[in-house]
Structures are given as structure tokens and as C-alpha cells.
Amino acid sequence: MSTFLTYPLAGFVTIDIIMNHYILKDRKPKHPHMIEYTVRLLFVLLGTLNAMALPYLGPLVAVVGAFCVSIINLIFPAIIELCLRYNVSYGLLKWRLYKNFLMILAGSIILFSGTYSAIRIMVREYGTAFPRAPDNEYIEPNITTPAE
Hints:
By secondary structure, the protein is mainly α. The chain contains 5 helices and no strands.
């Protein structure tokens, strides 16, 4: 019941941005509510197709996490600080400059190694002929043999 009631709420901001900044921008359609209902229906269908295509989201979440966490937590803050302190100072012996370069280097290593290993896991999970169940459960393949 909670999923049923909160799923439309989760997509409210996304649909509001799509409607106001892309579809309804610079025009007044005759039936804006019908357009919004269509966009909401497409939003739900896209989520449903995603769930059908990728039933086990663990590997996909690992790829997104490996990619985004290193960029958001390490690389972007270092680049932003480099840009903000460009005309001011990087501190005594330019310690902030070296710190930011080390953060960018560490973030890049984490980005590439984490994304590589997560993609390998994703290929192993989604690239098999038989579906894999979570928590190391084995799903017996449905293979029929001719009667003897």
C-alpha cells in the first residue's frame, strides 16, 4: 500500500520539471491535464519496463554508486576548490593544490576501479543464460529431456 501511495509522489518533481520546462514551455495547450496524465503514464511504464528488464537491481546500483560516489564526494569538491582559490591562494607551500590533486587522483582511481568491478559483476549477473536469484539461491534451469 505504501508503494502504491508514494510512487506518484516520488515522480512529482520529475514530472513537474518535464511539464513546465519542456512540454508546456511557451505554449498553452487545450488539455494540459491530459498531457500530464500521458507523461505520468509513460513515467510509470518506464519504471515498470526497467523493473522487468533488470529484476535484480544490486549490480545496477553498484555501477551507479561506484560512478557517482567518487565523482560527487572526491573529484568535484577538489575541482571546485581549485577553481575558487585560483586567484586567492592555495595556502602555505600550496598545500591545498597538492591536497586537491591527490583527491582527484584518488577519486579517479576509485572511479575507474569501482566502475570496472561493478560492470564485471553486472555482466556476470545479467549476462548468464539462466536467471540468478539473490542470496546465492540457485534457480534450476527448465530443461526438458525426451522420454526414453
